[in-house]
Fold this sequence. Notes:
By secondary structure, the chain is of the alpha+beta class. The protein has a domain at 45-162. It is 28% helix and 20% strand. It contains four helices and eight strands.
Amino acid sequence: xxxxxxxxxxxxxxxxxxxxxxxxxxxxxxxxxxxxxxxxxxxxxxxxxxxxxxxxxxxxxxxxxxxxxxxxxxxxxxxxxxxxxxxxxxxxxxxxxxxxxxxxxxxxxxxxxxxxxxxxxxxxxxxxxxxxxxxxxxxxxxxxxxxxxxxxxxxxxxxxxxxxxxxxxxxxxxxxxxxxxxxxxxx
Length: 187
């Protein structure tokens, strides 16, 4: 019986094809490992805010003024500490009114880049809703929560019960001053 003796070429081919296969499998595993895990969307009605969705930032839209999706409000940046709850608490401290009073919470709160919290009375009409998993960065203060993404915002809105409570207390509700001004102008 003849015995098979592999040639040096066989060893060379076997070694490099095995190496190539291992590199391909390792690359595939790394790509799957780097994909964002399933991040939780924060939902606590006691905050007065409800999740509105993932929205694109508007600063990069061509031929616009470069305004942010949530502009005209305030921002809080907390590296290493930002959570959705912290942001919602920050935005609930008051939008103020024309006289500088701290009368009502901001209608919108948005988290971006895992550490930024944006508060505003409105969301830009140029901002489009994206799939929730596009807001793929975990909050730096709670790695299980979604805190926006690169030019993407996890947006929350003041729920209707909170708006009603502010209105019933005789305080300026978000948008009421603008509506009143438009009515006075005959619009």
